[in-house]
Amino acid sequence: MPIENNMGPGGVDAAYGKRTTLPTRSYDTTKRYGDTFREDGDGPVNSIVKEAESGFVGIGTDSPVGTLNLSGTSADPAELIFTRSDGAVGSKNWYQRVEGNHRFALGRANDSGTVSNEYVTVATDGKVGIGVVSPNRALTIGDSGVIGINNTGNTVQSTIQMAAGGLEVYTPGAQSIVLGTNSSERLRIDSAGNVGVGMVPGQKLDVSGGARANWFGMNVAATPSGLGTGIAAPVSDTLGFYTNTTERVRIDSSGRVGVNVTPSSWGSSFKSLEVGATGNGIGCNVSGANTFLTNNLYSDGTNWRYNRSNASTLYEQSLGWHSWHVVGSGTADTVAYPTAAMVLNNTGNLGVGTASPSASYRIHAQSTGVNQVASQGTTDAAFINNVNGTQALYMHSTASMSEINELRAVPLNIVVNGATRATFDANGNLLRGTTTNPFGGDQAGYVNSNGTQTATWGVSATYGGSFIGSYSNHSFGILTNNTTRLTISAAGDILSTGGGLGYGTGSGGTVTQATSKSTAVTLNKPSGKITMNNAALAAGATVQFQLINSLITADDLLVVNRTGSGTNLAYQIWTEATAAGSAYINVKNVSAGSLSEAIVINFAIIKGATS
What we know:
Layout: E1 5-6, E2 24-26, E3 34-37, E4 48-51, E5 57-59, E6 68-70, E7 79-82, E8 93-98, E9 104-109, E10 115-122, E11 128-130, E12 139-141, E13 147-150, E14 157-163, E15 166-170, E16 177-181, E17 184-189, E18 195-197, E19 205-207, E20 230-232, E21 239-243, E22 246-251, E23 257-259, E24 270-275, E25 280-285, E26 290-295, E27 297-299, E28 304-306, E29 312-318, E30 321-327, E31 335-336, E32 339-344, E33 350-352, E34 361-363, E35 372-374, E36 381-385, E37 391-397, E38 402-406, E39 412-416, E40 419-424, E41 430-432, E42 444-449, E43 454-460, E44 465-470, E45 476-480, E46 483-488, E47 494-496, E48 508-512, E49 521-522, E50 527-531, E51 542-548, E52 557-562, E53 571-579, E54 582-589, E55 600-606
Parallel strand pairs: 5-6, 11-12, 18-19, 23-24, 33-34, 41-42, 48-50, 49-51
Antiparallel strand pairs: 1-2, 2-3, 3-4, 4-5, 7-8, 8-9, 9-10, 10-11, 13-14, 14-15, 16-17, 17-18, 20-21, 21-22, 22-23, 24-25, 25-26, 26-29, 27-28, 28-31, 29-30, 30-32, 32-33, 35-36, 36-37, 37-38, 39-40, 40-41, 42-43, 43-44, 45-46, 46-47, 50-55, 51-54, 52-55, 53-54
């Protein structure tokens, strides 16, 4: 139990400035000793206690736990109020206090010390509120929520505030807002409102590096200012792609695409792609199964129309069918009527001039006199029909042969540059320069005529079988190396122009007598060499031997002569008794002495006739 000593009057309450009772000194076995100041009739709650041992001062508590310990209740919280020293009326006083819910508050009080505004609150969980009594974040700013940030000289102030429309950040003048990470600038908003990511902006948005977005929209800008390469909306609900400040591709509001051209007004059932101002395009019928490749045409959904005033073409694919269409010239945007010029159907039949080919290859007559082509059956064959549909020409091919067959008894003409150059007549003769066979009906062969002269070859009973020659009253020449070597005149004379007349390489042979100069020899060649035996032949003596040759007939002429072998001018040689299959050759020694020489004799057969 402490013992109190009154020291006399003069004590002052530090919280409210009221006069107190005499100072009282207390002694306690725990505190050892200390000073206590209290109001008249009040207990320790409103007293000031200073502990002698710790030096702690307690206001409203007998047991201060800190250098200065203010204690209160929820009904009468402890407050620390700062006032002006002159006590002027109307001045604002600052206070600090701990509220009943253990939160710390900083605010202003009126002249009587009553709380008028609470500005800063620190909740029991450490959250701080400015203008907010119950902060729900680490720092919560209430009221107008404006934060001002000054530069070093306090000449420029930027603000951050939460307005009705959201969070607002402002600079007071032509300054930029910069955000960065890792001590480097990452984003800048310049004074004109341009945004640069990784770069100083020159447009509303400039990005250095890649960008990704779920979507973004555009306002209409018919001539995007400063756009070199990029995307813009040249008209409402369109998308334009630009390079070198020029629009290159446009996608209109219906999804139609134009490359270097504004896409035409294809019908809503089509998705189209057009390339260039000439109207080349691709149209896909999304409600059907058609794909179109067009030149100078587009579809409004019902009719084909010209892109510009000119002729047009159209290619169509549909469920395995391919169609090629043509259309004459017309006026831009007027209705066009394409005509199927060629069709390949889904079974592989190809038709020209018909939209429904019934054969593998069929050409339909467009006018009288124009034939048709059609392929029939399962073999590689085609028929060319006449204008009445009757098969006229048959073309066929197998692994081993090809065939062109005129099915009627009429000539087959080959025409070049509008003129008949060759004709196969009904008998199979090949006629060139003429369509009439001058040899009559029994000739089968080739005729070549320049109008006045006719050369021919073939087979004819009239002319004794196979033949080659000139039909007109002109000579017939044989040429080599573009030079006439042999000529048969109109009278039948055979004339050489300087070359030799005889047998060529491969027509000759050789043979040697076996035992004596009279031994027979056999050589079945039209020409050759005979080497005689070297037996002695007395002066003036004659020897005869037989040449057996299956080519010799009784009407032929056998020509013989000695080559350079043996003694010059010592022999006389002749033939006789020419018969079918053989002839005799005589050799006489006309020298003054006996000769034992193996002379060599050349021979050649010249065919003869008696009728």
